[in-house]
Amino acid sequence: MLIRIVRMTFAPERVPEFLEIFRSSEDKIRQMPGCQHLELWQDADAPSVYCTHSHWESAEALNAYRGSGLFGQVWPATKALFAAPVLAFSVYPAGTQPYSSALPTS
User: Fold this and answer.
1) Could you report the per-residue pLDDT of 32-60, keeping only the tens digit for each?
2) Taking CA 82 as the corner, what is the angle to CA 49 and CA 43, rounded to the nearest 5 degrees?
3) Which InterPro entries match (predicted)?
């Protein structure tokens, strides 16, 4: 399982637009092949900062979603509302993937 976190900062006046986009697409995203979970989080200290937290069967499933028509509609509309650069990253639960000994040493 791959976990994807996307942290997005919006101008306060753009938050309602973002929430409308998310609410109208969240069930469709959950139905994408390989999507196991999707949540929306709001920052406790910065109310115009939101994170999506999603679980995917694999990186391939996430990439298939990212190449889909749905993503092609949702992401550009969301991206147009950003007030700061997005922070997005993927992680695996510790111990579920083979440890790589080829990590940089410096």
Assistant:
1) 999 999 999 999 999 999 999 999 999 99
2) 5
3) ABM_dom (IPR007138), Dimeric_a/b-barrel (IPR011008)
